[in-house]
Specification:
Layout lengths: L8 H6 L2 E8 L5 E7 L5 E7 L3 H7 L3 E7 L2 E4 L1 H8 L7 H7 L7 E2 H12 L4 H9 L3 E7 L4 E7 L7 H6 L1
Antiparallel strand pairs: 1-2, 2-3, 3-4, 4-5, 6-8, 7-8
């Protein structure tokens, strides 16, 4: 990634959270997935407690779980520590990232074409790249409905070697 600056609690609080999806917890209710507006590697899930015992033990009926790069981070303080370590791309992620253009492209066409070239599904890899802040996504109007588009994040490294150089 590009030059790395220190992320603090103030940095996190200066941004906001945007709705990034919803989860179903059955009888206990639904949960909301949030993504930070200025730190895409940071996300949270607000979920109901999973049992009456958990509600009594914690004294709350909903919990916030923080994550960085798609992995559970525990508390916000632990998430901030993790955010100050550059993300590590797997070989498969670096291979896909090299193919994602800097300009916006329709996700379905890209995923279908590159998946066929490589002979495997790449949807989950694109998702992990988004969680690591290497890919940006947005919904755009399409002929039948809104369609997802992606691009390589402006400061995303092209290869793992470039990422290691900082």
């Amino acid at each position: 990634m590009a030059e790395h600056s220190t992320i603090t609690r103030d940095t996190v609080m200066a941004g906001g959270l945007r709705d990034a999806g919803h989860l179903n917890y059955g009888k206990r209710g639904g949960g909301t997935i949030w993504q930070h507006t200025t730190i895409p590697r940071l996300s949270a899930i607000d979920r109901p407690t999973l049992s009456d015992e958990e509600t009594k033990r914690l004294g709350v009926s909903r919990l916030r779980e923080w994550s960085v790069d798609g992995g559970k981070a525990g508390s916000l303080d632990e998430a901030i520590v993790a955010l100050n370590v550059p993300p590590v791309l797997t070989g498969e992620e670096a291979e896909i990232l090299e193919r994602i253009p800097a300009e916006w492209i329709e996700l379905h066409d890209f995923r279908t074409r590159v998946g066929a070239e490589l002979g495997r599904q790449i949807g989950l890899t694109i998702m992990t790249l988004r969680q690591k802040g290497a890919v940006e996504n947005e919904m755009r109007p399409g002929p039948d409905r809104r369609q997802p588009w992606i691009r390589r994040a402006p400061d995303a490294a092209f290869t793992q070697a470039e990422a290691a150089r900082g």
